[in-house]
Amino acid sequence: MIKPAIPNNEKQRVEALLQYEILDTLPEQSFDDLTRIAAEICGVPISLVSLVDPNRQWFKSHHGIDATETPRDLAFCAHAINDPAEVLIVNDASKDNRFFDNPLVTNDPNVVFYAGAPLVDSNGLAMGTICVIDHKPRQLNEGQVDALKALARQVMHQMEYRRDLKQIEKAKEETQRTSEQFQTIIESAPSGMLKVNEQGHIVMANKQIDQLFGYSRDELMGSSIEMLIPDRYRTSHKGKRKDFLKNPEKRSMGTGRELFGLKKDGSEF
């Protein structure tokens, strides 16, 4: 038996594989569908989505076999990733110097025929293969080889979609944590603080605002900011607010002038 060579880009390859966060995850229908299709197209009993990590090949999907992983040194797929551009085809492993005494050939699952299309990312790094296996010698026609390559691309699309979805979920969680931290800081501030949207509607206010103006939080949310300003200033305030949105610049609010607020009870301060 000839052990598979280690790719020259092994460090980058493994780092890229780990970024997918897919190793040792539960079965997923999207991957199982692809292995079932591969087996049907090639007319074989076994098909796998195999990912090669530093010590093993792990099966994200295994059709026609119960095993979920094998040692890397025994893996046909570990040979296949050394040439990402080609499908590795072994028509009869019992007559191949690389595999004839491989325990996967001489014992269960008795691999005789193998064809593996590398799963290649956008940087040309091979994560593993989608492969088909039979217990007897066989050959694939050109159409079957092309179909296996197409399925390999679909596996990569599924892996990328899965990775991107997880990144979006993590970003949402981080945004939620940041929002909660921001809200905690705002609530504990000694000054009254509120936030308005582009239409001038209040979308956030802290407890100091409640105390300053005498409104409850529910009364403030969604209301116009101008409700907190005396009547004689409301028109000009709307204009200044719109001008600011057109050209938002940092400035000292209220420098050189008196500012007035209107409480719920009608009194000014």
Compute the separation of the termini in Å.
89 Å
Q: What structural category arises from helix and sheet content?
A: alpha+beta
Main beta-sheet annotation:
6 strands, antiparallel
The parts where pLDDT drops under 50 for at least 5 residues are none
Topology order in helix (H) and strand (E) letters: HHEEEHEHEEHEEHHH
- Rounded mean pLDDT is 93
Number of strands: 8
Radius of gyration: 32 Å
Helix content: 25-40%
Give a structural overview:
By secondary structure, the chain is of the alpha+beta class. Helix content is 40%, strand content 17%. It is built from eight helices and eight strands; from the N terminus they run ααβββαβαββαββααα. A six-stranded antiparallel β-sheet has the order 3-2-1-6-5-4. Helix 2 packs antiparallel against helix 5. The mean pLDDT is 93.
Please provide a brief summary of the model.
The protein is of the alpha+beta class. The chain contains 8 helices and 8 strands, in the order ααβββαβαββαββααα.
Provide the fold topology.
Layout: H1 10-19, H2 29-42, E1 46-52, E2 56-63, E3 69-71, H3 76-80, E4 88-90, H4 103-106, E5 113-120, E6 126-134, H5 142-188, E7 194-196, E8 202-205, H6 207-213, H7 217-220, H8 231-246
Antiparallel strand pairs: 1-2, 1-6, 2-3, 4-5, 5-6, 7-8
Helix pairs in contact: 2-5
